[in-house]
Specification:
single chain, alpha+beta, Rossmann fold, D-amino Acid Aminotransferase, Chain A, domain 1, Dna Ligase, domain 1, 4 domains, 4-stranded parallel sheet, 18 strands, globular, binds adenosine-5'-diphosphate, binds magnesium ion
Length: 409
């Protein structure tokens, strides 16, 4: 059996992959330039080195039986050099397709997978041309390095277009973006597929996702879409994974709209217009809910693939609905918590909350993902309401020393 798993990146995703590896009797090496990376405590060996340190990367590969990564913005050149030393799952070629927006869109186009109309933009002239072709609104997205809506510009009118053109001219020759038709979204969803080296293939239930300020805020399972719609999304996600030649985990993010778009070709089921937004070749935020809602989690699935253990089909564990709520640094800041501790006393009054996970990040910052929690209830609406109520209760100022014994009078 494969025992030593190397994980590039030691954030919360790396940490939860590590937990699943240890469950199966394995151990992990973690590579992360951040000395405070949350997964460092779980590392048999912690490589606290820069991504550009080729000697340290070689040593990391030599010390591991198999390698994976927790985020797709990892520099693929550095690890492409090492891909023949040890297996990397998902492969460098899957990573390269999914980490570059234009290549990802071309993959969708070439394989007739439904997606928003797009164009490559390298200069202000391209932008003028395609904005007039697509019409307002459009979104300009950088080809590399974006996450949580970073590196994106919404173009709604002539003055936004002017601002975007100025941005392009300032950026000069290095500028490389993709322009997309902005769709009229009624829902966002995701579907995780896992494929093993022996061909075993499993697909998780479809999750419904809500974003706030472009950051995933809530995930609900099951998604509020017909069975036929969910089945179609699963089959699209499986087809994409097969076409990519995936070994490992792939998350497909979907856009859903009730209305037809101006320029984009959708798959239509029960009145839902379904498009692929993008892929993530790794565990996904929305998949946190699988740790509570399913017979196996996305992290277990990846650990089993890496360690060559059978995966088995994930099933939802209970009727009703589960809701995952993200906890950003903002909650810490509104508690006035000095440091990393979150006061969880409010949990007592919220029995629908079945789990709270705190990532152990060093410093709470606004917009920084610091933890998440999961509620369970009979209906999706109730699970969401209870999640919002819990987060609201957590986001209250905490009086320092409130639980301390009263001072002697
Ligand atoms: P990131 O890599 O930051 O996750 P995404 O491409 O997924 O980037 O965009 C972030 C969010 O912005 C999406 O989840 C969606 O809410 C919104 N968005 C992105 N592209 C479009 C689009 N073409 N039409 C409508 N909304 C979009
Ligand atoms: Mg996204």
């Amino acid at each position: 059996m494969i025992r030593k798993v190397g994980i590039l990146g030691g954030g919360q995703l790396g940490k939860m992959i590590a937990e699943s590896v240890y469950k199966l009797g394995g151990c992990v090496n973690i590579y992360d330039p951040d000395i405070n990376a949350p997964a460092r405590h779980l590392a048999a060996r912690f490589f606290n080195r820069e991504w550009t340190d080729t000697a340290a990367l070689s040593e990391f590969f030599a010390a591991s039986d198999v390698v994976t990564y927790e985020f797709e913005n990892v520099e693929s050149e550095g690890i492409a050099r090492l891909q023949h030393e040890k297996p990397i799952f998902p492969s460098v070629s899957v990573l390269q397709t999914t980490q570059h927006r234009l290549q990802e869109k071309r993959f969708l186009q070439e394989n007739a997978l439904p997606h928003a109309a797009f164009a490559e933009i390298t200069c202000a002239n391209d932008l003028q041309k395609y904005v007039s072709e697509f019409g307002y609104p459009c979104i300009l997205k950088s080809s590399r390095g974006g996450y949580d809506g970073k590196g994106q510009l919404f173009i709604r009118n002539d003055s936004d277009l002017q601002a975007a053109s100025t941005w392009i001219e300032k950026a000069g020759a290095a500028f490389h973006c993709v322009l997309e038709e902005a769709l009229d979204l009624d829902m966002e969803a995701s579907c995780i597929v896992a494929r093993a080296t022996d061909g075993e293939e499993v697909v998780f239930p479809v999750f419904e996702n809500t974003h706030k300020n472009h950051i995933l805020d809530l995930t609900v399972v099951p998604a509020g879409i017909s069975e036929a719609g969910a089945r179609e999304m699963k089959s699209i996600a499986v087809r994409a994974a097969e076409l990519l030649g995936l070994k490992g985990l792939l998350t497909t993010e979907f856009f859903l709209s009730r209305s037809a778009s101006r320029k984009s070709q959708a798959t239509i089921v029960d009145g839902w217009h379904i498009y692929i937004n993008e892929f993530a070749p790794r565990p996904h935020n929305s998949g946190h809910v699988t740790r509570n809602a399913c017979t196996l989690s996305q992290f277990d699935a990846l650990a089993r693939i890496l360690m060559q253990v059978p995966i088995g089909q994930p099933k939802i564990l209970a009727p009703g609905a589960f809701c995952m709520g993200q906890l950003l640094g903002d909650v810490w800041l509104s508690q006035n918590a000095a440091g990393v501790d979150l006061d969880l006393a409010a949990w007592q009054a919220h029995p629908a909350v079945i789990d709270v996970v705190i990532y152990g990040k060093h410093e709470p910052r606004a917009g920084r993902k610091m933890g998440h929690f999961v509620t369970w209830s009979d209906t999706a609406n109730d699970a969401v309401e209870r999640a919002l109520a819990f987060r609201q209760a957590l986001s209250q100022p905490v009086t320092i020393g409130k639980n301390a014994a009263p001072a002697p009078t």
